[in-house]
Amino acid sequence: MVDKENAEAFDLLEQDILNSASPGIRPGLSRMAKCLGLLGNPQRAFKAIHIVGTNGKGSTASTIASILSSSGLKTALYTSPHLLHMGERLKIEGKIVSPQRWMETWQKVKLVLRENFIAETPPTAFELMTAVAFLILSEEKVDVAVVEAGMGGRLDATNLLGEVILSVITSISLDHTNFLGDTISQIAKEKFSVIRPGKRAIYVGGDFGLEKLFIDSCAKMISEGHIFSRECLVKPAHFSLDGVIYDFWTSKGYFFDSLETKLTAAYQISNTALAVFVALLLKDVFPGISDKTIRSGLLSVSWPGRFEIIRLKNGKVLILDGAHNPEGMAVFAQSLKQVLCPHENITFVTAMMKDKDIRETLKKLCNLPIEKIVCTQVPQLDRSESSHALADIARNIFTKAFIGDEPELNTALCEAVNGHSSYIAICGSLYLIGAIKKILRSDL
């Protein structure tokens, strides 16, 4: 928990980083490699577990970190994007690193930029944040860092990690096609390119063609490859707004009955079970991992903005989820069906980015009992589609629901909360979730 003063300090730091960075997304490793080299290559000073994929990366990474921390390891977690402030991106032993420490380390990186990138394109904001995080991790001498890739894989700044002991690939679907390729196989090749020679790699599986591509990629790298869907069996036992419970088997004879996590969504079963499989494979590297620490890690993990439940004083329930592409929205819709009462009407608040497949993503909600959809937009974000354009698309898809068009986010939220529905689902973008949480924080 970071107080308002520290959150404001992180906001000022982020602005300074943005002012020093190249704008936008610029795939490539040369800028980052040069920057890290001038800093003494801090990314080589700690063991890392590298998480890539399209959906489920953050939840999986957070669960792995929670298990490792419960196992007595000094564990770091690096994720993106953030919801409220950039300090959320880096946690050590479950705690956010102070803005003062971030600022001190940023000054070292900034000096390197000033002296060595005068005539060259500087790194992007994500690259600079990652460089600062790696430098902090090297100075903190963590036992292991769980690092989530940003957008891609092969050309992602995190792919410069020096001692990756395990690569984890979550589900893969069409996203960021202008950078990663316009077919699933092209995107998968970008993700599978993070597999390290002679090291272990795990792919969640589920698509035969991509599984074959993964196996071939591991063979080329002489890596030990594991496919979760082939080696593990999961049997869901209980769904509710308070969490999920499931049984878990592996082909090597491990069995857990009634594994429980407070992460609430059907898709969190797959994400957290994948993390359990990761932990089992790492027992030879980290002997402190046990059945007890796996259960403890699962029970204590939290991951805001993904089927996050917020109960309001008036008895209504907000369900916040960062689903922003067709696959993510499909599993979000499935989770809503499983945890809510049949025929329970739902009001949606949604905003989406212009570069997403908005129509196909919204169509995944068609089978839900939707009373109203309030279309809005994320304040001060050019990437956000206008509420008017979003509402036009929604009206063509949802012919029986009321479609609202409200560009002001505060007003859109109030309209939804003051309506008839007991449940308000907010989804479409993690940027939307972050903006909503800021409103809720100021109102609470």
Automatic annotation (TrEMBL):
Family matches, as PROSITE patterns: FOLYLPOLYGLU_SYNT_2 (PS01012)
Catalytic activity as recorded in UniProt: (6S)-5,6,7,8-tetrahydrofolyl-(gamma-L-Glu)(n) + L-glutamate + ATP = (6S)-5,6,7,8-tetrahydrofolyl-(gamma-L-Glu)(n+1) + ADP + phosphate + H(+)
Assigned EC number: 6.3.2.17
Gene Ontology molecular function terms on file: ATP binding; dihydrofolate synthase activity; metal ion binding; tetrahydrofolylpolyglutamate synthase activity
Domain Mur ligase central: 52-278
Organism domain of life: Bacteria
InterPro entries tied to this protein: Folylpolyglutamate_synth, Folylpolyglutamate_synth_CS, Mur-like_cat_sf, Mur_ligase_C, Mur_ligase_C_dom_sf, Mur_ligase_cen
One GO location term (cellular component): cytoplasm
Residue stretches in coiled coil: none
Gene3D superfamilies: Mur ligase, C-terminal domain, Mur-like, catalytic domain
Residues in Mur ligase C-terminal domain copies: 305-411
One Pfam match: Mur_ligase_M
Key words, A-Z: ATP-binding, Ligase, Magnesium, Metal-binding, Nucleotide-binding
PANTHER family: DIHYDROFOLATE SYNTHETASE-RELATED, FOLYLPOLYGLUTAMATE SYNTHASE-RELATED
Family to which this protein belongs: Belongs to the folylpolyglutamate synthase family.
Protein name: tetrahydrofolate synthase
Organism from which the protein derives: Acetomicrobium thermoterrenum DSM 13490
